[in-house]
């Protein structure tokens, strides 16, 4: 059967001949090239990026794929990257020319012969088919390196279903998972060590623990959900460096090269910034069905961003582009949305500015004017370790229409997915824009895009799958026919 090579990530430009299957398999070296940490993400209307890690570098990361089990096509790249302190290489292969809303089987290089997986491409923009997606914030590794059922505040009950497991149980309901920053919590190793939770760890040995947490998290995520559903991610402060903003007498000066400046996060993912004019995994957009999705970056790359050197977050990271680049991109991206095709715009950033706890004022100054100018429908955030649903709000004033065709964006904070630090308390009394707050259970959000007028958000308790809060937004979008 004919194999079609797809040249990307510089291989075509280099003018090299397509490697043969023999060339590919020659690079397999047993355990060193066994795939782990498998995940994939949307990459444009007809693309998918497949990513996995190996202990050794792959000369030509490759993916065989097809509409049936014969996997008659192949895509490859030269992207097998690592960084100081990492114990693995991140391999990324972009596949283009796929049919929208279509399932494909695939297998990555050096996997067992029968280790086939399936992905489904995004729904074509404008297709009114209803669908559901999952939204999470602030999810760390589970078990002895992170959130366990012992030795910490808000520990899991023995046998409690975690958010990862809950997503796995519900995966047949949704198309993709959107993780709005704070992944793995590898930088909590210092806190865990100082608290005696990691009794055999020293500060000097922390760099290895940091990498062990990242590997554990991405493997758990793969086993539960990311080898089955697209995994879209954005940056949070816990991706910035090794020390979680300093802990006790320590500052980020203890971080080794490779564990600063979002390095692991930049290596591990290839979000669709190339397809949307964005930047790496920091800001980008994609479409699916009736929705245009935007991930923006509340950590660096705007005035007084908290993670910049000297910023309030003490993370000493970035910037990653010249002054003004992110905001200019966001404006351009919002202006280019064809609301006839994608009447809904849903955005996500990590740090909220409407929330019953410390607010990110510089984020509000940078982003809210554009959200209002371009009629963003829903704005999602994490960072605070609880669930809080606001009423639509603009410039600190609740929209009098509530969820009944408001002109202001609807704000939801959900950073309750779970990690070593547990949950936080919502400050009381609540702000006048807070409708519902839950700060005692781990959970995730399920969004259902019904049509061009209605979207429902449910907060799901991970432990038992119950819906603890549910609300539906009605918007009378111009020209809406579905
Ligand atoms: Fe955070």
Automatic annotation (TrEMBL):
It is an enzyme of class 3 (hydrolase). Residues 1-17 form the signal peptide. Gene3D superfamilies: 3.60.21.10, Purple acid phosphatase-like, N-terminal (2.60.40.380). Residues 132-386 form the Calcineurin-like phosphoesterase domain. The keyword Cytoplasm does not apply. CDD domains: FN3, MPP_PAPs. Its EC number is 3.1.3.2. InterPro entries: Calcineurin-like_PHP, FN3_dom, Metallo-depent_PP-like, MPP_PAP, PAPs_C, PAPs_N, Purple_acid_Pase-like_N. Residues 408-470 form the Purple acid phosphatase C-terminal domain. One of its GO terms (molecular function) is metal ion binding. Keywords: Glycoprotein, Hydrolase, Signal. Residues 35-121 form the Purple acid phosphatase N-terminal domain. It comes from the Eukaryota. PANTHER family: PURPLE ACID PHOSPHATASE. Belongs to the metallophosphoesterase superfamily. Purple acid phosphatase family. This is Purple acid phosphatase. It comes from Penicillium angulare.
